[in-house]
Write a structure and sequence with these properties.
Shape: rod-shaped
Number of helices: 3
Mean pLDDT: 86
Helix content: 55-70%
Largest sheet: none
Low-confidence stretches: 4-8
Order of helices and strands: HHH
Number of strands: 0
Distance between the termini: 124 Å
Radius of gyration: 45 Å
Length: 114
C-alpha cells in the first residue's frame, strides 16, 4: 500500500484542473431526492413495458380465439350448405311426394297460363 501512495504522490499536479469536493453536506437532501425520483421513474417505465407486453399477449389470445371461432363457423357453413342442397334435391322431393300419394299430373290436369 505504501508503494501505491508513493506513486500517487509522484504526480502532484494531476488533479489541479478538477473540481473535487472533499466532503458532501449530509444535510443536503437533493441527492436522495434525485435518486428516489430516478428509481420511481425506472419502476414506472418497467411497469409500462410489462403492461404493454401483457396487452400484446392478451390480444394474441383474442386473435387466436377469433380464428378458431371463424374456422368452426366456416365448417358449420359448409355443413349447412350441404344439408340445404340435399333437402332441395328433386329426387328427394319426388320421393316424398310419392310417399304422400302424389304423382305426375295427367295431361288434362295441366293448365297453361299465358
Amino acid at each position: 500500500m505504501a508503494e501505491v501512495v508513493s506513486k500517487k504522490l509522484e504526480f502532484p499536479g494531476v488533479l489541479i484542473g478538477q473540481d473535487v469536493k472533499a466532503k458532501r453536506n449530509l444535510n443536503d437532501m437533493s441527492f436522495l431526492f434525485v435518486s428516489v425520483l430516478a428509481a420511481v421513474a425506472a419502476v414506472l417505465i418497467i411497469f409500462a413495458f410489462l403492461w404493454s407486453r401483457l396487452m400484446v399477449v392478451n390480444t394474441g389470445y383474442e386473435i387466436s380465439r377469433a380464428n378458431s371461432a371463424r374456422a368452426s363457423l366456416i365448417e358449420q357453413n359448409k355443413r349447412l350448405k350441404l344439408q340445404y342442397m340435399r333437402l332441395k334435391s328433386p329426387e328427394r322431393i319426388e320421393g316424398l311426394a310419392a310417399g304422400l300419394g302424389f304423382g305426375n299430373p295427367a295431361s288434362e290436369q295441366v293448365v297453361i297460363l299465358k
